[in-house]
Amino acid sequence: MKSFMNFEMGALNVMTVPVDPAIVSSFAPLAQQAATDDAFAVLRPKWNSDIQWISANTPETFAHFQSAFDRLRIADHVAPHLDLDVAPRLYAGFVLVRSRCTDTNFHLDWIDTGNAAFTLIAPMDERIRGFGLLYEKVTGSIGEYDYSPGEAVIFGEKFLHSTKPGQSEEPVAMLCFQFGTDRMANWGKILETAGYQSLLIQQPDGRFAVRDGDSWRTISPPAP
């Protein structure tokens, strides 16, 4: 899997793609529902914001994210850049919710994965205008991407980025996917990121695993 260049953004391993805003916004109710529904997990990292990650906590609720991933045809955009046996695999889907970000936190989502995994972020409505995405260009300068309903940004390895500090009177929600190769070779490195934001995950081989303390335990057989 080789890096690719986005000349418009001036950065490696990043692309913007159209998405159906109706499918994306259908996940908005999770921002209120998840806190009282054990079928979903709510994780709150100690960052410079009030961010929450709301993800599936059962294979049945994971299926909602899988359906959206399939209907949005996200795999079509990354398949040419991946080593695959069959097709790109969705590892995790979640709704990201926040209303403030007080400082930048530049980071890489994926490290030493061989560019075998990607993140997608798609805003649910116009309230996203209060936030943006800052990223490092190959020149070393900082670029800015403005989220827009109906469009998603997808990025892989070597894409250094941060939320642009901002604030919204109401919580802002975004749909996120983590996905990539269906081969297990680099799963250890992929899991270092994919396993940070969810308690249930789908492995490249199609098996579901749940977090068990500091490790992961598979709960289903491999996909056919």
List keywords for this structure.
about 220 residues, 7-stranded antiparallel sheet, alpha+beta, about 15% helix, 5 helices, Jelly Rolls, globular
Please give the radius of gyration in angstroms: 16 Å
Q: How many individual β-strands? A: 15
Spatial separation of the terminal alpha carbons:
25 Å
Corresponding CATH superfamily: q2cbj1_9rhob like domain
CATH first level: which class?
Answer: Mainly Beta
Overview of this structure, please?
The chain is of the alpha+beta class. The chain has a single domain (5-218), classed as Jelly Rolls (Sandwich). Helices cover 16% and strands 36% of the residues. It is built from 5 helices and 15 strands. The strands form 4 sheets. The chain has a 7-stranded antiparallel sheet with strand order 3-10-7-12-6-5-4. A 3-stranded antiparallel sheet has the order 9-8-11, with no helix packed on it. A 3-stranded antiparallel sheet has the order 13-14-15, with no helix packed on it. A hairpin with a 5-residue loop joins strand 8 (133-136) and strand 9 (142-145). The longest helix has 13 residues, at 59-71. It is globular, with a radius of gyration of 16 Å. It starts with a strand and ends in a 6-residue tail after the last strand. The model has no long low-confidence stretch (mean pLDDT 89).
